[in-house]
Amino acid sequence: MKFKFGKIEEEIITRKDFSLKKARKFLSNETICVLGYGVQGPGQALNLRDNEFNVIVGQRKNSKSWDNALKDGWIENKTLFSIEEGVEKSTIIMFLLSDAGQIAVWPKIKKYLSSGKGLYFSHGFGLTFKKKTKIYTPKNIDIFLVAPKGSGTSLRRLFKEGKGLNSSYAINQDYTGKAKKRALSIGMGIGSAFLFETTFKKEVYSDLTGERGSLMGAIQGLFSAQYKILRENGHSPSEAFNETVEELTQSLMPLIAEKGMDWMYENCSTTAQRGALDWWKTFRDINIPLFINLYKEVSSGREAEKTILSNSKKNYRKNLKKELKEIKESELWKTGKIVRKLRP
């Protein structure tokens, strides 16, 4: 279905355009193997299973993720296999290991990618930065991605509520002539609300920019800055937290998600309206240079290089815990923990 966004026309694939029934029928003779059972793996695998696709899981044995897969009802040697066995037994491989995991596992599985198989990603990192990841793919397979716009946990939760997450899809290589239908079928099978087209490169550039920007990095920085200034001017922790985080996440964000920012502006006090309208462009103008620099760092590959270097260090997990501890033990998020417990 075609939609116009200003002067730009896009094709959006909805559940009416490509039904779950059609998706199941198209993949009825395919065996799908979900590699990795960490962030995206469980949600996508369980949704496919519940939607009655022929799906198995490939995971490293004697690991925490292997144990989690067993708890979720995957059966060893029937629907749960080692990574190599899973790839060998399947016709479509969903490569859902972490970016670091993909780099480590790729040499072990590439020999099992026989002619006509499908290789699926939910992130364009591995192939976009292949000079750094060394993921060089064969030419006689289909390569495509579906990238849900949210975590695997959210994908599963919304699926169980009868809803869905929007997802992008991209075709990197169409060897069999059916790569697009494979992508759309899995996209619907994992519980996408609708699908919009992108490329591997654009997916990873937008994803890395978003993670470092408004989705995670920038929002934590903004929270931290506002909370700090309120506290330094004598406001209590609970007041500073509620005005910085709680009101945004519990009251305003749901309204923005439902009706849009303009509707929210129309339905708040005139004082709030005036201040928001006077200040939003100032925040935009201050942040545009930051985002220009951020996008350059992402598109140049420097962010990818930093990520790969950091993840490859033996003490990565130890250092990560230290960085997360700094956030967790800050007054801002200690206050947040107490406030969350007080919610009815």
UniProtKB/TrEMBL annotation:
Which residues are Mg(2+) 1-binding?
207, 211
- Annotated substrate binding lies at 269
Pfam families assigned:
KARI_C, KARI_N
User: SUPFAM superfamilies per the record?
Assistant: 6-phosphogluconate dehydrogenase C-terminal domain-like (SSF48179), NAD(P)-binding Rossmann-fold domains (SSF51735)
Q: Which residues form the KARI C-terminal knotted domain?
A: 199-344
**Residues the entry annotates as binding Mg(2+) 2:** 207, 243, 247
Any one of the GO BP annotations: isoleucine biosynthetic process
Task: Name the Gene Ontology molecular function terms of this record.
Answer: ketol-acid reductoisomerase activity; metal ion binding
Under the heading InterPro entries, the entry gives: 6-PGluconate_DH-like_C_sf, 6PGD_dom2, KARI, KARI_C, KARI_N, NAD(P)-bd_dom_sf
Q: What EC number(s) are associated with this protein in UniProt?
A: 1.1.1.86
Q: What is this protein called?
A: Ketol-acid reductoisomerase
